[in-house]
Amino acid sequence: MTTTQTYYYGTGKRKSAIARVRLYPGGTGAVVVNGKPVEEALPWLDWQKRANAVFENIPESANRFNVVAKIQGGGISAWADALRHGIARALLLADPALKPQLRKNGFLTRDSRIKESKKYGLKKARRAPQYTKR
Question: Domain span at residue 81?
Fold first, then answer.
């Protein structure tokens, strides 16, 4: 027999990275990404700070939840921002009263900057072939 534990779900996106985040209430503040602790999945301290920025700016929710995330696509830097976006969305479901604070800090806004697509006749999105005069 399996026990079903309640959780709050949020999807975060950045570039081509997609984070599926679950917040389990009554936790210790542990963050697990793709089955690894956040320190292993995001080894650089700046990435860890970006991922945990929601909990740093809203201290009353810091150690109330355990975070379990599955992230795919993109690079590690985009993973950190996608994780932050997913945590913010899940936290909004857990406590709707936090919406003004989350919105003010910019955690609910998806960063829509993505790679520009390549144009025909060019080598990359804007890089033209080298010009030869003769």
Answer: 8-104
Q: Say how far residue 18 (Cα) sits from the centre of its chain.
A: 7
pLDDT tens digits for range 4-18 = 789 999 999 999 999
Name 123's Cβ contacts closer than 8 Å, sequence gap at least 6.
Answer: 129
CA gap 19, 74 in Å, rounded: 10
* CA distances (Å), origin 56, targets 10, 23, 118, 132: 18, 16, 39, 55
CATH number at residue 93: 3.30.230.10
Note whether residue 132 is domain-resident: no
Query: How many structural domains is the chain composed of?
Result: 1
Could you read off the pLDDT of 85-122 as tens digits, one per residue?
999 999 999 999 999 999 999 999 999 999 999 999 99
Q: Which residues contact 74 (CB under 8 A, 6 or more apart)?
A: 14, 15, 16, 17, 18, 82
22 in any annotated domain: yes
